[in-house]
């Protein structure tokens, strides 16, 4: 295992044509590889605009199996460019059973495994419980050609338990493919605080677990258009802001709020070792005292 490898994040906007979005993703994987990335992560559900802004049973037709067209295209891109690719897919597991799934594709084009999003939101314009069955594979880490990595998905980023359980399996980097943005009516009053909370909680995962964290969001304004069919409502302004931080929470690279960008940063396992030796949070955990964490609340 290499002591150093580079992570690339593809912050992109998504249009109404799924095939065009996949083609863009394939091109961006190639661009990131040219910039030195060994692992490339794409945003959540990048194949389409964010369709969860409305509940529409016809949109289940957007789902696909794994392996399927999107993972096949990204597997070829991974093999051609000799990079690991993390691809977020609307997975059709069976008739009536669908997941929000991240596929980890190794640098030879083989699928190392999948992670199914565990925490599913149900908020205005984020009606994911209508579409996605909660994940049943648990939290996972994967050995890849670059190194041992873990991926969670979007809403998972607010839960320290998921980050901890993935880090405890030896992941050196936690990836969070994401689709998050501002409600236009709320942005002026709450937008800065919302973004700051999002950034802070994920930096905290890096600090608490002594790991690198890589977060990739989409950018642009969307009404959830699918093949040109405009959804009702005010839409979402996806806030971009993709970033990579080290085990001390230091931000190594960060994207703008409104542009398509590729971020590349180095993961240094020696740095990870140094931070954990000086801030030995994993060593000092009181695992004998944590059993109540499995309760919903402690009455």
From TrEMBL:
Query: Which keywords does the record carry?
Result: Hydrolase
Output the SUPFAM superfamilies linked to this UniProt entry. Answer: Carbon-nitrogen hydrolase
Q: Give residue ranges for domain CN hydrolase.
A: 5-269
Q: Which GO terms describe its biological process?
A: putrescine biosynthetic process from arginine
Which segments of the protein form a coiled coil according to its record? Answer: none
Q: Which InterPro entries match?
A: Aliph_Amidase/BUP, C-N_Hydrolase, C-N_Hydrolase_sf
GO molecular function terms attached to this record: N-carbamoylputrescine amidase activity
Pfam families per the record? CN_hydrolase
Tell me which PANTHER family the record gives.
BETA-UREIDOPROPIONASE, NITRILASE C965.09-RELATED
- Protein name listed in UniProt: Carbon-nitrogen hydrolase
């Amino acid at each position: 295992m290499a002591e150093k490898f580079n992570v690339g994040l593809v912050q992109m906007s998504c249009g109404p044509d799924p095939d065009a979005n996949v083609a863009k993703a394939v091109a961006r994987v190639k661009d990131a590889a040219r910039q030195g990335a060994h692992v490339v992560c794409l945003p959540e559900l990048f194949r389409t605009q964010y369709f969860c802004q409305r509940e529409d049973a016809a949109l289940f037709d957007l789902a696909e199996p794994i392996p399927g067209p999107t993972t096949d295209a990204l597997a070829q891109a991974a093999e051609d460019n000799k990079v690991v690719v993390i691809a977020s897919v609307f997975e059709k597991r069976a008739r009536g059973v669908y997941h929000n799934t991240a596929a980890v594709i190794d640098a030879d084009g083989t699928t190392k495994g999948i992670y199914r999003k565990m925490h599913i939101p149900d908020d205005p314009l984020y009606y994911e419980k209508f579409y996605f069955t909660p994940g049943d594979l648990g939290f996972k880490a994967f050995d890849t050609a670059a190194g041992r990595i873990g991926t969670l998905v979007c809403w998972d980023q607010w839960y320290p338990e998921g980050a901890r359980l993935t880090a405890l399996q030896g992941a050196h980097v936690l990836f969070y493919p994401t689709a998050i943005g501002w409600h236009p009516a709320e942005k002026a009053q709450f937008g800065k605080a919302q973004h700051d909370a999002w950034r802070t909680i994920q930096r905290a995962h890096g600090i608490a677990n002594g790991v690198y964290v890589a977060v990739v969001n989409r950018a642009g304004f969307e009404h959830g258009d699918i093949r040109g069919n405009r959804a009702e409502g005010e839409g979402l302004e996806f806030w971009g802001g993709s970033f990579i931080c080290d085990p001390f929470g230091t931000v190594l690279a960060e994207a703008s709020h409104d542009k398509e960008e590729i971020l590349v940063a180095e993961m240094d396992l020696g740095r990870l070792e140094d931070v954990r030796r000086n801030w030995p949070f994993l060593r000092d955990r009181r695992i004998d005292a944590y059993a109540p964490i499995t309760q919903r609340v402690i009455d």
